[in-house]
Specification:
heterodimer, A: 700 residues, alpha+beta, Aldehyde Oxidoreductase, domain 4, Aldehyde Oxidoreductase, domain 3, 3 domains, 7-stranded mixed sheet, 5-stranded mixed sheet, 23% helix, B: 333 residues, Uridine Diphospho-n-acetylenolpyruvylglucosamine Reductase, domain 2, Enolase-like, domain 1, 5-stranded antiparallel sheet, 4-stranded antiparallel sheet, 14 helices, 20% strand, globular, oxidoreductase activity (chain B), Diverse_Substr_Oxidored (chain B), Mopterin_DH_FAD-bd (chain B), oxidoreductase (chain B)
Chain lengths: 700, 333
């Protein structure tokens, strides 16, 4: 394997709207998902979960379940295979009698059919002893300061003297903003097929898993199962969405692996139900953001303070980096951010689209709207005045700071200039009408350790990398990148993904996929051409990894955007509708405008959905989320999605990646809820600082 | 789900006797609600008697009105031209509910007999008197946003989810029921019941009684009727509150007769008789409608999570009248 700094790629296929290369397979149903792959004599698994939030399992009575026709076995903590490592409290299931949250896996039923397994699970009697627990996030929870926040950022920052600056500021805004628990809810529920076999005298575990990163699953499971990473093969050829919830292996994957170890080699199929997803597959913590902003006479920020209270699970820490965008968003000499976590006896939170940026920028951008009003400035102008020359935290120049361009272009496209400044000044029939704006940002990320393989074939090139296309269009975009890097057409590329048998790749997360995997593919392609020339015989190959130059020492890399929303609020019922949204983005060069638009529009829809609907209601008396299906956890329906447009600035800087891309998966959700909330305020004069914005808040 | 017997009789009387003679049997209609319950363990019948193929799908003129067979699909009923002109509240109520796919599958009788969407009813790990009598009510002090504000009892604080049921009360529909002892007719207004101390029973029907049809009498007020449903999401959501209004006005604009029925506020469609009485025989004004709603709401008992409902249902009632009476809208402007 060679490591090299790849040179910029001349775009030819890049930038074209190549139709999804796997589109026909998907729409004709031939694309197989995690529990659809044909396997020999599968057993079906069903999870039995705890009904106390904290305590222990006293006894598991399997007799009724085992008597049910079709049920083959029940595995619980008394007889599950032992793990070699148990420090990951989320994954170390069935190892002891402790219950850490309501909905935790306490047994697995295996049966000859899915129906028999489900009924068997209903018939397993689990006697549990309940202990006192805490499951409610409040402002006054006992909390602690985590060492780092996700993924490895400083917990607190403090520059200058915020308190003094606030004391002398012309305008001071002090407010608290809240976002609720939210669940990712990809279309395809989490699912795993697992079987153990023997190869050359060594155990081997094979998984089809609905995952955002097959290599990551193998890396997480292997030491816990006491085997080498090479003894696990994980495949995910097609995945029906993830939004972060499939970024890491959750407990059901371990349940499948452990259960399959007891079947004498028969494969185990485990499909998590939608209801179980609300306990087992991650979620976004609720957040409480306390903001203090101070400005001088001209509306220039002199102080920014963002203090965050949120929660983690007792079983495993996850610290959402809610205040992280506040550190680089606007200029101010005095700035302070902090994160504190309450430890609750609840399910384990995890990544959900734009962790940190989504809740943090909701708070920050509503605060900016309030500040604009307090300063008597237009909200776009306030943001323009506070656009920093260099990264306020790092002190480095931005490679590209496109925020003001996005705001200006969006304002023009949206017709912002004709907007009346005062709230509650436009009515249209039964509706109040308002418009709002918010900024968006997301860091550009390139993960290390990606390797790609290029091999010449009879028909062109096979290009392999063990990355996963979770529905974003990665397979298509990478085909375009490979074609340009090799100087051939996209038809000449056979792109292979989704298998740990292929070279190492990082997770499809952090909007880093195209940048990370694409750079490796470019490196491998350029090295291949150097090794074998551009008319190679079939059967030659090269593996390579992309090194980075010193650009990270010279520049701060972020994407930016501006979101504009028009909101109508019904004067009689308080109902909110969003007839029009526009997002304008600075995200680097777009590899495929069709799939990119889908990502950005999808992010805008998800942000609007968070603004108006999404809330996982945890009942603190029980400790679990009680809105645990799509009838009670509302996401935007078709009728809610009206005129949503996304566009991007024409950019071609190749400082960050040889393709010029910076990542587009998450920025669409950032700031969007704030734009909607700000528009709702402009429509009605009612300021709502807690998501979601529901009709009752606007009733007159 | 529990293994069960599946029977498919060809005659309504056979279906009735199969269920009446087996306490563990249930009728299966379109299945859009019961099948979910089977999967979740909310319902665990030993026998399903499928009535969806019985010849109960007539939609025809009858006795000056319209006879709607129990198996007429929600989408067909909503689209029927006679319904849209003679009983528009029903079309609007149906189209405000569920999704296109579900309306294609769901039946008229099944819509009326659907059960609450209370999150605790659907979660077998939590107490619920409706699902498991005597276990307690988790909703009373729990997630309360969809709870009742009228007629709730200590046993149950939930609401009936059907939009169609609310509309049927506003047009004086009658439900035709076949039981082991023959046929009987139940006014739509009397079909659903308040929970009292028996939350398990949603309706007055006995075990084995099968709804075979709904009769829609023609009336002046039914012809001028509408449905307003309030919800956060623009479609595919149950009502926070809903309002069916049917009105017959004299030439001078005074109200000859009217019906005001509220959904999302009680264990049954709530006919707002006090509000009706306050408006009958009088000229209409928006302020008058709001006052009438307030008179009805004197009985309301909002709890944590439902504090918003009185104002919302009052406003929605005013909105429904505004939609039906153009000069009211003029006046408000």
């Amino acid at each position: 394997m060679t490591e090299l700094v790849p040179s910029p790629v001349e775009p030819k296929a890049i930038g074209t709207a190549l139709p999804r290369v796997d589109g026909v397979e998907k729409v004709t149903g031939r694309a197989a998902y995690a529990v659809e792959h044909p396997v020999d004599r599968p057993l079906f698994a069903w999870l039995v979960t705890s009904t106390v939030a904290r305590g222990r399992v006293v006894a598991v009575d399997r007799s009724e379940a085992l008597a049910h026709p079709g049920v083959v076995s029940v595995v619980d903590h008394t007889d599950a295979p032992r793990l070699a490592q148990t420090d990951n409290g989320e994954l170390a299931i069935l190892q002891d009698d402790a219950v850490g949250f309501r909905g935790q896996i306490v047994a697995v039923v295996l049966a000859e059919s899915s129906e028999a397994a489900r009924e068997g699970a209903r018939l397993v009697r689990v006697e549990q002893e309940a202990e006192p627990f805490e499951a409610e996030l409040r402002e006054d929870n006992a909390s602690y300061r985590p060492e780092k926040v996700n993924p490895a950022m400083e917990t607190d920052t403090d520059q200058g003297d915020v308190d003094t600056a606030l004391g002398t500021a012309t305008t001071v805004l002090e407010q608290t903003y809240r976002t609720p628990y939210e669940h990712n809810n990809p279309l395809e529920p989490h699912a795993t097929t697992a079987w153990w076999s023997e190869e050359d005298g060594r155990e081997r575990l094979t998984l089809f898993d609905s995952s955002q990163g097959v290599h990551g699953v193998a890396t997480a499971l292997a030491p816990m199962l006491g085997i080498d990473r090479e003894q696990i093969r994980v495949m995910a050829p097609f995945v029906g969405g993830g939004f972060g919830s499939k970024g890491e292996a959750h407990a059901h994957v371990m349940a499948a692996a452990l259960a399959a170890r007891t079947t004498g080699g028969r494969p185990v199929r485990l499909a998590v139900t939608r209801q179980q997803m609300f306990s087992l597959t991650g979620y976004r913590t609720a957040t409480i953001s306390k903001f203090r902003l101070g400005t001088d006479d001209d509306g220039r920020l002199t102080a920014i303070e963002h203090r965050v209270q949120e929660q983690t699970s007792r079983l495993r820490e996850f610290a959402e980096q809610t205040a992280s965008p506040t550190r680089m968003m606007y200029a101010a000499p005095n700035r302070r951010t902090s994160h504190r976590l309450a430890v609750l006896d609840v399910a384990v939170p995890s990544w959900m689209r734009a962790p940190g940026e989504m809740p943090g920028m909701f708070a920050h951008e509503v605060a900016m709207d309030e500040l604009a009003e307090a300063c008597g400035l237009d909200p776009v102008e306030l943001r323009r005045r506070n656009d920093p020359d260099v990264d306020p935290e790092e002190g480095l120049p931005f490679d590209r700071r496109g925020l003001v361009e996005c705001l200006d272009r969006g304002a023009e496209r949206f017709g912002w200039a004709s907007r009346p400044r005062a709230p509650r000044s436009t009515a249209d029939g039964e509706w109040w009408v308002g418009t709002g704006v918010a900024s968006a940002t997301y860091p550009a990320m390139r993960q290390p350790g990606n390797v790609a393989r290029v091999e010449s074939t009879d028909t062109g090139f096979a290009v392999s990398i063990g990355a996963v296309d979770i529905g974003t269009g990665a397979r298509t975009a990478l085909t375009q990148i490979a074609a340009d890097a090799l100087g051939v057409g996209t038809d000449d590329i056979d792109l292979r993904l989704g298998d740990t048998a292929l070279p190492m790749a990082s997770v499809a997360g952090g909007s880093s996929g195209t940048s990370s995997w694409g750079s490796a593919i470019v490196a491998a392609a350029q090295q291949f051409l150097a090794d074998h020339g551009d008319r190679p015989d079939p059967g030659l190959w090269t593996e390579a990894s992309a090194l980075r130059g010193d650009e990270a020492d010279r520049f701060s890399f972020h994407s930016f955007g501006a979101v504009f929303a028009e909101v109508h609020v019904h004067r009689y019922t308080g109902e909110l509708r969003v007839p029009r949204m526009l997002g304008v983005y600075s995200v680097g060069r777009v590899v495929n405008p069709t799939t990119a638009r889908s990502q950005l529009v999808g992010g805008l829809v998800m942000g609007m959905s968070a603004a108006l609907f999404e809330e996982s209601v945890r009942d603190p008396r029980f400790g679990h989320v009680v809105t645990q299906d799509l009838a009670t956890y509302h996401v935007a329906a078709h009728a809610d999605v009206a005129g949503i447009e996304a566009e991007w600035l024409d950019e071609s800087t190749t400082t960050f990646t040889p393709m010029g891309s910076r990542g587009i998966g998450e920025i669409g959700i950032v700031g969007t809820a704030a734009a909607v909330a700000n528009a709702a305020y402009h429509a009605t004069g009612v300021r709502v600082r807690d998501l979601p914005l529901t009709a009752d808040a606007f009733l007159e | 789900m529990r293994e069960l017997a599946y029977l498919r009789p060809s005659d309504p009387a056979d279906a009735v006797s199969l269920v009446a003679n087996d306490p563990d049997a249930r009728f299966l209609g379109g299945g859009t609600n019961l099948v979910d319950h089977l999967k979740l363990g909310v319902a665990t019948p030993g026998t399903l008697v499928d009535v969806s193929h019985l010849p109960l799908d007539a939609l025809e003129e009858h006795d000056g009105g319209l006879l709607v067979g129990a198996n007429v699909r929600n989408s067909d009923l909503a689209a029927d031209r006679r319904v849209r002109t003679g009983w528009p509240v029903l079309s609007r109520a149906l189209l405000s509910g569920a999704s296109g796919q579900i309306r294609n599958q769901a039946t008229t009788a099944g819509n009326l007999l659907q059960r609450t969407r209370c999150v605790y009813f659907l979660d077998v790990t939590t107490p619920c008197n409706k699902r498991e009598p005597g276990s307690g009510c988790s909703a009373a002090e729990g997630y309360g946003r969809y709870n009742a504000i009228l007629g709730a009892g200590p046993a149950c604080v939930t609401v009936h989810p059907s939009d169609l049921a609310v509309g049927l009360v506003a047009v004086d529909a009658t439900v035709v029921v076949l039981g082991p002892d023959g046929e009987r007719r139940v006014p739509a207004a009397d079909l659903h019941r308040l929970p009292g101390d028996d939350a398990a029973r949603d309706t007055v029907l006995g075990h084995g009684e099968l709804i075979t049809a709904v009769e829609l009498p023609r009336s002046a007020h039914a012809r001028t009727s509408t449905y307003v449903k309030v919800r956060d999401r623009a479609s595919f959501a149950f009502a926070l509150v809903s309002v069916a209004v049917a009105i017959d006005r004299a030439e001078d604009g005074t109200v000859r007769d009217l019906r005001i029925v509220w959904g999302g506020v009680a264990h049954k469609p709530w006919r707002a008789t006090r509000a009706e009485d306050a408006l009958r025989g009088r000229p209409l004004t928006e302020a008058g409608v709001r006052d009438a709603a307030e008179a009805e709401l004197d009985q309301a008992r909002p709890t944590a999570g439902t504090e918003y409902k009185p104002a919302m249902v009052r406003n929605a009632t005013a909105l429904a009248f505004r939609r039906l009476v153009p000069d009211l809208a003029e006046e408000a402007r």
